[in-house]
Task: inverse folding
């Protein structure tokens, strides 16, 4: 079982739909990211810790994600501290495109993944799965309509 330490602001900055809204709707973007991560990791054994810069404003409810706010410190420092106090850093995967955080994770024997690679691996797969399910649902509806109206 892996524990993903995700640099939330860094990840949001790599998602165009979130990056553009970070200044105007910080709480909404944070919640959207947490829900997205929750959906991706819900059916896995892995744990996820989402690190966010600043102070908690609203409670974000998730099933699988633990959220740590950095308060007055940068999230990068909090991530490094959590790596330092972890019992087994080999079970941690640090997700950040910030070279300092990424390289620190690697130096401490953690797995490390750039935010862009994480997006490609997890979010694209989840989006493709959702799209496939929507298409299959539409196909079933189409077949039902054909039966109802006697069209073959």
Result:
């Amino acid at each position: 079982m892996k524990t993903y330490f995700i640099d939330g602001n860094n990840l949001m900055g790599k998602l165009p739909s979130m990056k553009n809204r970070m200044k105007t709707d910080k709480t909404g973007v944070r919640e959207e990211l947490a829900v997205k991560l929750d959906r991706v990791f819900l059916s896995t054994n892995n744990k996820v810790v989402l690190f966010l810069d600043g102070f908690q404003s609203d409670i974000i409810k998730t099933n699988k994600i633990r959220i740590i706010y950095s308060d007055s410190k940068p999230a990068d420092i909090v991530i490094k501290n959590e790596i330092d106090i972890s019992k087994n850093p080999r079970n941690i995967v640090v997700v950040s495109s910030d070279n300092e955080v990424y390289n620190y994770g690697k130096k401490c024997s953690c797995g490390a993944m750039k935010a862009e690679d994480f997006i490609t691996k997890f979010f694209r797969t989840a989006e493709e799965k959702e799209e496939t399910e929507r298409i299959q649902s539409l196909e079933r509806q189409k077949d039902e309509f054909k039966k109802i109206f006697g069209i073959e």
User: Anything to note?
Assistant: Helices lie at 8-14, 16-19, 26-41, 75-85, 99-107, 115-149. The longest strand covers residues 47-52. The CA atoms of residues 55 and 71 lie 4 Å apart. Strands lie at 3-7, 47-52, 65-69, 92-95, 111-113.
